[in-house]
Specification:
Layout lengths: L2 E5 L6 H13 L8 E3 L2 E5 L3 H9 L4 E3 L2 E6 L13 H11 L2 E8 L14 H34 L2 H18 L11 H9 L8 E7 L11 H12 L3 E5 L1 H9 L2 H11 L5 H12 L2 E6 L4 E8 L4 H8 L1 H5 L1 E8 H7 L2 H6 L4 E3 L9 E7 L2
The structure holds guanosine-5'-diphosphate.
Guanosine-5'-diphosphate (GDP) binds next to α1 and α8.
């Protein structure tokens, strides 16, 4: 399964955030063992549309969809030159599909900062430098190999890779991540094959002070991170890891009261989960009308048979068609009957590209 990896310097709040995530996950009825491994946690994707579907088409059970976070601990500085632990850190990042980069954006004299002062930009660059150096090394190695073949044999595949490497090298040398370059579809395949660290999508999470949780984007530290993210082709959000950990431990009543006090409508964690889910290019379709109202995860761009296969491989193999209703149409018309009468229920075939929010019923041969 796809996983989002949490990285950051020591003492910035990674474990706190990961705890909040797994605690929220540990309450899930369907996943009593939310922590698969010490550093892997399963989370539910909060989705208000599920409640609305359940309201209109009641079922015995509501089942949200889930995905994984991985907590990537380990040393950071010098990792790209490091043996053992350093390499392990980079190897662990290589395994994840998106990077959630936690940055300290709170002052607290009691919590030691590795470099002695709170400086979000310096922190970010400490990590990014290691990632860029590791990629540069990989690209240079590959370059040395491919250049000769490309220039002597004029082999098409080698030439195509050579052209990609020629673009990557100067970018990395100028400290720009691989994701900052725009690729066409063929080039993208070549880039994917290089398994670079800086081609993965990134979300910067500014870990702000608890006092800022009601208005987490108001602080100067956050602003610095946001400006950096915009230039770095990355996304950004602010959260207070400590406050989220506390919220995750509360029962529903306390939670509601606490959030009202803070003037927020949902935990920041929900936003983090949704943002990471999107970063992984994941989308949701629903099934309803049976025993359960359920959300399912698919990759953006998947066609109907593949999406059916998410539920069961038999559904994909024997796929005939998918009776499809957009969530917004159900929401607007209020019942499946009314949707049908309005002509908004669609019969979709094998080539249909599933849309986020589709409510689907698959017809298949056994
Ligand atoms: P990690 O090394 O990145 O995993 O960092 P931890 O999650 O262990 O956090 C390091 C210390 O910072 C712990 O004592 C946390 O309680 C504290 N911490 C984490 N988030 C916050 C925060 O938002 N505000 C304050 N004041 N302390 C925090």
């Amino acid at each position: 399964p796809l996983t989002a990896g949490i990285v950051g310097l020591p003492n910035v709040g990674k474990s706190t955030l990961f705890n909040a995530i797994t605690k929220a996950g540990a309450e899930m009825a369907n996943y009593p063992f939310a922590t698969i491994e010490p550093n892997v946690g399963m989370v539910e994707v909060p989705d208000k549309r599920l409640d609305r579907i359940q309201e209109l088409i009641p079922a015995d059970k509501v089942v949200p969809t889930t995905f994984e976070f991985t907590d990537i601990a380990g040393i950071v500085k010098g990792a790209s030159q490091g043996e053992g632990l350093g390499n392990k850190f980079l190897e662990n990042i290589r395994q994840v599909n998106a990077i959630v980069h936690v940055v300290r954006a709170f002052d607290d004299d009691d919590i030691t900062h590795v470099s002695g002062k709170v400086d979000p930009l310096e922190d970010i660059e400490t990590i990014n430098t290691e990632l860029i150096l590791a990629d540069l090394e990989a690209v240079e190695k590959r370059y040395a190999k491919v250049e000769k073949v490309a220039l002597t044999s004029k082999d098409k595949t080698a030439l195509a890779e050579y052209a990609v490497l020629e673009k990557l090298k100067p970018a990395l040398e100028a400290s720009r991540p691989a994701r900052s370059i725009e690729w066409n579809e063929d080039e993208q395949k070549i880039v994917d094959g290089l398994f670079l660290l800086t081609s993965k999508p990134v979300l910067y999470v500014a870990n702000v002070a608890e006092e800022e949780m009601a208005d987490p984007t108001s602080g100067a530290y956050y602003q610095q991170v946001a400006d950096y993210a915009a230039k770095d082709h990355a996304e950004v959000m602010a959260i207070s890891a400590r406050a989220e950990e506390e919220i995750a431990e509360m029962d529903d009543e306390d939670k509601a009261e606490f959030m009202e006090l803070q003037g927020i409508t949902e935990p920041g964690l929900n936003r983090l989960i949704r943002t990471a889910y999107h970063l992984l290019d994941l989308r949701t379709f629903f099934t309803a009308g049976g025993k359960e109202t359920r959300a399912w995860t698919f990759h953006a761009g998947m066609k109907a048979p593949q999406a059916a296969g998410v539920i069961h491989s038999d559904f994909e193999r024997g796929f005939i068609r998918a009776e499809t209703v957009a969530f917004d149409d159900l929401d607007q018309y209020g019942s499946m009957k009314a949707v049908k009468e309005a002509g908004k229920r669609r019969s979709e075939g094998k080539e249909y590209v599933v849309q986020d929010g589709d409510i689907m019923e698959f017809l298949f041969n056994v």
